[in-house]
Design goal:
It comes from Nocardioides euryhalodurans. This protein is mostly beta strands. The chain has two helices and 25 strands. It binds coenzyme A. Coenzyme A binds at residues 143-144, 161-162, 177, 179-181, 193, 195-196, 202.
């Protein structure tokens, strides 16, 4: 991995490559990827190194959807002295009075509305929408095409699956997972997996 790195993307899988697209579209220079499983190879023409060898002082964004894996990589890279950078694709909309924490990734076509608070290391994937006054705590993932309505709270480590809808004013508890296509009409308990329309619990995620 080059030492003159501007941004290192942690994770060289699908989301990592989407993060690369967002970085390039946003005019950020990317020096390579950090990925244990693919270290020593190349991805999209860039070198893939080991996360525990990533050079201190580089900027990084994690291109992995799993909140748990993202947490592990953030802890490792922060401890090595890398600096998280927030990447917003230029074809995403982030409205006024909305704040994004460190290390966030917002992909093309996402619409993040007004007066939203987004914590650190959150991801809003392509064509997802987040409504006014909503709060995303740290390490939340909103998958492609999901619609999170206004004044919703997504607690830490929540994932909202592709095409799911979370109705206005609801709270989704920490670590919960909203399945693809679900319509959430009630608060979701921490750690709960919900599917269907209206969404109903399946089993706790381990
Ligand atoms: C909800 C989810 C996490 C469950 O995953 P899982 O625990 O591995 O569940 P399984 O695939 O073993 O399915 C268990 C049961 O739930 C059903 N199920 C799974 N996901 C469902 C969903 N989104 N909506 C409705 N039913 C669903 C399955 O059909 C299966 O039913 P069955 O027992 O009657 O056959 C997952 O299916 C999901 O929706 N993930 C989000 C995917 C996504 O949005 N990816 C974006 C990639 S960019």
């Amino acid at each position: 991995m080059r030492e003159d790195a501007d941004v290192i993307i942690a994770g060289a899988g699908g989301v990592g490559r989407e993060a690369l697209d967002a970085c390039l579209a946003a005019g950020l220079a990317v020096s390579g990827f950090a990925d244990d499983g693919l270290a020593g190879g190349r991805c999209r023409g860039l070198p893939v190194g080991r996360p525990d060898e990533a050079p201190a002082g580089s900027a990084y964004v994690v291109g992995i959807a799993s909140p748990a894996v993202r947490r592990r990589l953030v802890a490792l890279l922060d401890a090595r002295g890398l600096e998280p950078v927030t990447v917003v694709h230029p074809r995403a909309i982030v409205a006024p009075e909305t704040t994004l924490g460190d290390g966030c990734l917002v992909l093309g076509g996402a619409h993040v509305s007004s007066s939203i608070t987004i914590g650190d290391h959150c991801q809003v994937h392509y064509n997802a929408t987040v409504g006014h006054d909503t709060v995303l705590r740290d390490f939340v993932t909103v998958y492609p095409g999901a619609n999170v309505s206004g004044s919703v709270v997504l607690e830490e480590d929540v994932t909202v699956g592709s095409g799911a809808v979370v109705l206005q004013g609801l709270t989704v508890g920490a670590g919960a997972f909203v399945g693809a296509g679900a319509v959430v009409t009630r608060d979701v308990a921490p750690g709960q997996v919900v599917v269907g329309a209206p969404a109903r619990p399946t089993h706790p995620r381990s």
